[in-house]
């Protein structure tokens, strides 16, 4: 009897959704419940946090792509996909009886109010920099991060390595080179140490020195006011664009880049690089 009631309720909810011309947030919650409930979608019912992990990462990067390409249409779509991921993960926990989306919404609202005392309290700030300083201080108090090491370890290790390195450097900025010129000197030192490790053919030493070099590069980027992750992203795109021009030049001559010598490709590359 109970299963029949459940099935009847499921059909009523589906009919309700199919009759609508426009959906809202509550409908999304209902759809996920239906997909994961009895008689729902086999794939959706099988998922857990770990199986969805890769999808969450991909959806997040697709939002970034929409932002970078300034596509409002794509941004609207991809934000929906990220929202689905949030609702999906929350629904898994709702089924386990731990929390649901109302708890998630409550917690983020409470956090925003607590971390904006200059808006919801009596604290005064003069600019955005002071807002961020207060935010970090309040966050540290909430999570009982009493030492600088606590704060450094709190930076998610799964962030892109360059981004994480620059965030670590920023939080430890008092333990840093005073000027960019001093970082340049350190950079040359690290390059020589990497060269020496390479000459000794020690893969472990090369790996270590390469890491030191890249970390120094992020320090230099910070001193010069550049985001190292964005700089590398732009440089990679620039390389692909230039490579496309090189390959098109080779193809127009009836050849393929795989058949060209490095000297020939370098000559074409230099021509492309200096062309308007």
Explain the overall architecture.
The protein has 276 residues and is mainly α. It contains 14 helices and no strands. It has helices at residues 2-18, 25-36, 42-46, 49-68, 72-96, 101-114, 117-120, 128-142, 148-153, 161-171, 180-199, 203-223, 228-252, 262-273. α1 (2-18) crosses α2 (25-36) and α2 packs across α5 (72-96). The protein is extended, with a radius of gyration of 26 Å. The relative contact order is 0.04.
Features:
14 helices; mainly alpha; 276 residues
Mean pLDDT: 89
Gap between N and C termini: 76 Å
Approximate helicity band? over 70%
Helical stretch count?
14
Number of β-strand runs:
0
Q: Secondary-structure element order, as H and E?
A: HHHHHHHHHHHHHH
Model regions low in confidence, pLDDT < 50 over at least 5 residues: none
The computed structural class is mainly alpha
Main sheet properties: none
Morphology call: extended
Radius of gyration: 26 Å
SS strand fraction: under 5%
